[in-house]
């Protein structure tokens, strides 16, 4: 009926052809925290803030069979780990920068309070 050895050979050949191609297209990426300075008009102060930035570290030029699969798995694990660690750094850094900004914030002068309304008189005044 079915020649399982021939099917396995064809399937293995297809995987061997696809995995190096995927390896050529894949690149190792990591997430890095980046600090920028922005001007806050409400407080009239320059404040720092952090955000995540993705960076490409490199690509896979030559890999075959299980080695390529291992490289792809390792690249995925490194990307996920860098996102978690760098994301935590960004959250903590932004909390610190928020407190720093609140300490330096120069709020605009408050408007003078409005005069209280004059109560209406209930009766008419007669001469």
Written overview of the protein:
This protein is of the alpha+beta class and 127 residues long. It has one domain. It has 2 helices and 2 strands; from the N terminus they run αββα. The chain has a two-stranded antiparallel sheet. The radius of gyration is 32 Å and the shape is rod-shaped.
Please tag this protein with its features.
127 residues, alpha+beta, two-stranded antiparallel ribbon, 2 helices, 49% helix, rod-shaped
Summarize the structure.
It contains 2 helices and 2 strands. It is an alpha+beta fold and 127 residues long.
Sequence-ordered SSE layout with sheet pairings:
Layout: H1 4-25, E1 27-40, E2 45-59, H2 65-104
Antiparallel strand pairs: 1-2
Task: Give the overall pLDDT as a whole number.
Answer: 75
Helix percentage: 40-55%
Number of domains: 1
What is the overall number of helices? 2
Label the structural class.
Answer: alpha+beta
Our Rg estimate from Cα atoms comes to 32 Å
Low-confidence stretches: 14-26
Taking the alpha carbons of the first and last residues, their distance comes to 122 Å
Global geometry: rod-shaped
Number of strands: 2
The sequence of SSEs as H and E is HEEH
